[in-house]
Design brief:
The protein is of the alpha/beta class and 378 residues long. The chain has helices at 51-58, 88-91, 110-116, 119-125, 137-156, 172-184, 202-219, 230-236, 254-258, 261-268, 275-282, 285-290, 332-344, 347-355, 370-373, and strands at 11-22, 25-36, 40-44, 66-72, 78-80, 95-97, 190-194, 222-226, 239-244, 247-252, 315-317, 323-325. Helix content is 36%, strand content 19%.
């Protein structure tokens, strides 16, 4: 084994072919992505895309049906998270998380909330006995260190002046920052944040961004976050992964994801025949040009389904012969791929229309099968 320390750009988290099934219902289908060390990776997608299910698999709340989740620490050790008991994921793999709903001890002070996060260290210093009650020197030293660490993170979260106030008295945005400060008191190498900007006003979002950038720049902790606030995602993320109905539809830099027609269509949620119209109205020429290219197979599996995939009108196959009901038109990203395939399969028609005098704008081909499914549209 090499003694060289790992580079800041290697993968701290490697998710490979992750699937999560509830009976015959597929919440996550063959998902693969990386989160690089020292970066902020955002996991985004419309409601019901499976983002929190992915988090629950990473942090041990769910055991995935298939796939591997590898966490590589700075010291060179690695852990298969799907095989670890859930209580060992924060303790040994150094993964911490926050939740969509705030889970503070509202009756405790801010300082006490951050000390609770360090209970493992304090219990070890006490010898798991009552030695702390008798002023054991090792416990006194550990207790002082814990208080110093708690005050450090209260300062980082701009909350040190309220250290002795009950956590429940804080404004909502301050409670969000306190949750993150509490998670950082556990010394994580990977911090998983589930919608940290949900419900924040613009000023609170700016304070949150500042805290996350400070964590990234000064601690070396890598951040994986789920977020619906695109202003937060685009400002602070180094890498973005987009899900729709349990499958990955885009993976790359914030700029690349923002101009991906699959992502635009998935977020707009427009009717089948209106996808291209809305993309045209967006006015980004690079996006429009991508509609005339073939589908990008590098973005993961072609077909997956979810128990949130909408009306039951068709079936699709999965591994080992499993078949799951899912609507043909559920995926807006899939419609963009289908439209691109249809355009790419008719080069002669495109050449013919280019040779004729331009009397009116050419009509692009509709998504296969769409017009026949909608009553009254020929």
């Amino acid at each position: 084994m090499s003694d060289a320390s790992p580079s800041m750009n290697d993968a701290i988290l490697q998710v490979e072919h992750l699937s999560m099934k509830f009976g015959g219902l597929v919440a996550i289908g063959d998902l693969s992505f990386q989160a690089r060390r020292g970066e902020i990776t955002a996991l985004i997608g419309p409601n019901g895309a499976g983002k929190t299910t992915v988090f629950n698999c990473i942090t041990g709340f769910y055991k995935p049906s298939e796939g591997m989740i590898t966490l590589s620490r700075r010291d060179g050790s690695s852990f298969l998270l799907e095989r670890l008991p859930n209580h060992e994921i924060p303790a040994r793999a150094k993964v911490a998380r926050t939740f969509q709903n705030i889970r503070l001890f509202s009756g405790m002070t801010l300082l006490e909330n951050l000390l609770v996060a360090q209970h493992n260290k304090l219990m070890k210093a006490s010898g798991y006995t009552v030695l702390g009650l008798f002023g054991f020197s090792g416990y006194r030293m550990a207790s002082a260190e814990s208080i110093d660490l708690a005050r450090h993170w209260l300062e980082k979260a701009d909350l040190v002046d309220r250290a002795d106030d009950p956590a429940g008295d804080l404004p909502y945005g301050a409670q969000r920052r306190l949750e993150i400060a509490r998670a950082m008191c556990t010394g994580p190498e990977l911090l998983c944040l589930d919608e940290p900007a949900a419900g924040l006003n613009p000023k609170e979002s700016m304070a949150l961004n500042a805290l996350l950038m400070d964590i990234k720049d000064n601690t070396g902790t890598s951040i994986l976050l789920i977020e619906h606030d695109m202003a937060v995602v685009m400002q602070i993320s180094d890498h973005v992964v987009v899900l729709e109905y349990g499958r990955k539809i885009s993976d790359g830099s914030p700029h690349a994801v923002r101009t991906d027609p699959r992502v635009i269509a998935a977020y707009l949620g427009v009717e089948d025949e209106d996808v291209e119209t809305v993309l045209t109205e967006v006015g980004d020429e690079d996006v429009i040009e991508q509609l005339d290219t073939g589908p990008d197979s590098a973005h993961g599996p072609g077909t997956s389904s979810s128990f949130l995939a909408g009306p039951v009108t068709d079936t699709v196959g999965h591994s080992e012969g499993e078949r799951v009901t899912v609507s043909k038109a559920a995926s807006k990203a899939g419609q963009v791929d289908a439209r691109s395939s249809a355009a790419a399969s008719k080069p002669s028609a495109a050449k013919s229309s280019a040779a004729k005098p331009a009397t009116k704008a050419p009509v692009k081909p509709k998504t296969p099968g769409v017009s026949n499914r909608r009553g009254g549209r020929k």
